[in-house]
């Protein structure tokens, strides 16, 4: 990634300016201490940590919103410990597992049956976890906030609209990020046809990124962070953005160059008021 791995992009190539890092038992103690201190104090620039179970033991780190498991943990205890790194500040978080057929095969002698059932079962994931540890899950206000199983069954207004929107171009969603007091949008809102065309151009950009296509752990969504959902957010809220820096600040882009490229595409559809 070269200079793009540092924040800001012209920052000195030092570990404390890097957007991602690794964390494991053999990692230098002073580096592990620096990483933990930065996360605890909320001053870390890290967006991704490639970690083993050594990360976060005994710590309640805030602002960890997503856990990505590459491969399948052998036991429910291991999975619960890894997934439990997120959401310790009480805010909604997610955990995703990327696995292949070998991960669930009987050739993996140490894989517990409960973990194989967990990823293959067509039932509530929270229920499987809670019952394993001897508890009953409490009902949630919205089903989609539970797990992937209930997300497919959820019929709340947001999910109904989202389902209809996914079948149409453009979507029906009309929500945009809020403005600060005194701010006004610099550009007029795009019409339906413009939004649809903008999405087409953004999808073309996504397909041009390295890593497009299936791999053993995912696709370009995982390797680049430019997901279909992110494209929808950009297109629907295009008129609210003012620069590449604004896009990068308000949306979860992995690479500054991606934000710059997408801003150039968006600019082609915007007209100043």
TrEMBL record:
Top-level taxon: Eukaryota
GO CC annotation: chromosome; cytoplasm; nucleus
Molecular function via GO: 3'-5' DNA helicase activity; DNA binding; exonuclease activity; four-way junction helicase activity
Nucleotide-binding recorded as keyword: yes
PROSITE patterns: HELICASE_CTER
Reaction equation(s) it catalyzes: Couples ATP hydrolysis with the unwinding of duplex DNA by translocating in the 3'-5' direction
Alphabetized SMART domains for the sequence: HELICc (SM00490)
Pfam families attached to this UniProt entry: Helicase_C
Alphabetical list of Gene3D superfamilies matching this protein: P-loop containing nucleotide triphosphate hydrolases
Domain Helicase C-terminal, residue spans: 1-130
UniProt GO BP: double-strand break repair via homologous recombination
Keywords: ATP-binding, DNA-binding, Exonuclease, Helicase, Hydrolase, Isomerase, Nuclease, Nucleotide-binding, Nucleus
Enzyme class: isomerase
Cytoplasm is among the record's keywords: no
InterPro entries assigned: Helicase_C-like, P-loop_NTPase
E.C. code: 5.6.2.4
Family assignment from sequence similarity: Belongs to the helicase family. RecQ subfamily.
The protein's name: DNA 3'-5' helicase
């Amino acid at each position: 990634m070269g200079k793009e791995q540092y924040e800001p992009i012209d920052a000195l190539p030092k570990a404390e300016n890097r957007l991602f890092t690794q964390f494991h038992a053999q990692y230098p103690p002073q580096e592990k201490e620096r990483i933990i201190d930065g996360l605890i104090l909320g001053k870390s620039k890290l967006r991704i940590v490639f970690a083993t179970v050594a990360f976060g033991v005994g710590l309640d780190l805030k602002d960890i919103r997503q856990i990505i498991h590459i491969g399948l943990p052998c036991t429910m205890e291991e999975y619960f410990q890894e997934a439990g790194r997120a959401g310790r500040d009480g805010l909604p978080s997610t955990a995703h597992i990327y696995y292949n057929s070998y991960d669930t095969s009987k050739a993996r002698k140490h894989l517990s049956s409960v973990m194989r059932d967990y990823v293959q079962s067509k039932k509530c994931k929270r229920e499987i976890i809670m019952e394993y540890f001897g508890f009953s899950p409490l009902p949630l206000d919205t089903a989609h906030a539970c797990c992937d199983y209930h997300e497919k069954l959820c019929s709340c207004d947001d999910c109904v609209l989202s389902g209809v929107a996914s079948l149409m171009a453009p979507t029906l969603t009309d929500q945009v990020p809020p403005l600060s007091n005194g701010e006004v949008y610099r550009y007029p809102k795009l019409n339906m046809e413009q939004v649809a065309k903008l999405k087409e151009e953004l999808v073309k950009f996504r397909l041009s990124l390295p890593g497009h296509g299936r791999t053993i752990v995912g696709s370009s969504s995982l390797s680049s962070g430019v997901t279909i959902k992110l494209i929808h957010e950009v297109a629907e809220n295009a008129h609210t953005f003012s620069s590449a820096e604004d896009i990068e600040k308000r949306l979860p882009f992995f690479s500054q160059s991606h934000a710059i490229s997408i801003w150039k595409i968006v600019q082609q559809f915007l007209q100043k008021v």
